[in-house]
Design a protein that fits this description.
The protein has helices at about 5-25, 50-70, 85-110, 125-145, 160-165, 165-190, 195-239; strands at about 30-35, 45-50. By secondary structure, it is mostly helical.
């Protein structure tokens, strides 16, 4: 397994590249640049280039710092059991932000923000499809850390049921990990129909979240019923 220290250096290198890129491209861009698109690659809005070019790297640095600080809030210090996976998840987060940042810059540098409002790269993919590829990568990274997560109070699916039993936590998060992997595959397929798949993913995330809460509650009730039956058998033996 790749070490946690390597992951930290990779994340810092990505952040450094973002800052370096900002100073390298700032003067080559128009005052107003495209910052966001819909699922059909149509432009939804423009933003001041200073805010976009320097704001996103700053946001990425602050977000990375927050994610690295977050484990300190866990009272049981169980993050140590999953720290390597978690560090690489933070790498995936800043990597995704850098990927989006690169797409935004390339789009605007090519001067195709106006006109038909659609960027088609040399290999025939529009920007929405390229974004779906990044989302697939991020969902897969999240699935890995969720699947292997330990019971912590600041990360994961936190319900009364999952926090009451390590077994319930493990079963719920293993299932969540497989669900996220499935979503990552769907997102990957979404490069061919990004608008439809993006809407499908949003529905899947909402439905999946509800399902996991209900599933963990079901496991909790099932475990309690089993303990009641065992308790009754013990009482009968004593009599």
């Amino acid at each position: 397994m790749v070490s946690m220290k390597t992951g930290e250096w990779v994340a810092l290198a990505i952040l450094f590249l973002m800052v370096l890129t900002a100073f390298g491209v700032y003067w080559s861009l128009p005052e107003q640049i495209v910052f966001i698109w819909d699922g059909n690659s149509k432009v939804l809005g423009y933003i001041d280039k200073t805010l976009a070019i320097f704001g996103l790297p700053l946001f990425s640095i602050l977000l990375y710092g927050f994610l690295r600080w977050l484990p300190n809030l866990d009272p049981n210090q169980r993050f140590r059991e999953m720290q390597t996976e978690y560090v690489w998840f933070t790498v995936a987060v800043v990597g995704f932000l850098f990927y989006y940042y690169g797409m935004m810059i390339f789009y605007n540098l090519k001067g195709l923000a106006l006109g038909n409002n659609q960027f088609i790269s040399s290999w025939g993919m529009n920007i929405a499809s390229m974004l779906m590829f990044g989302i697939a990568f991020l969902l897969f990274a999240l699935s890995e850390v969720i699947h292997k997560s330990s019971p912590v109070h600041v990360f994961g699916i936190k319900t009364n049921a999952t926090l009451s039993s390590e077994t319930i936590w493990k079963e719920t998060h293993e299932r969540a990990g497989w669900m996220l992997k499935s979503m990552a595959i769907i997102a990957g397929i979404g490069i061919f129909a990004p608008d439809f798949v993006l809407k499908l993913l949003l529905v899947a995330i909402v439905v999946g979240s509800i399902y996991l809460v209900v599933y963990s509650d079901y496991l909790y009730k099932k475990m309690n019923e089993k303990q009641i039956v065992i308790g009754k058998r013990k009482n009968k033996k004593k009599k």
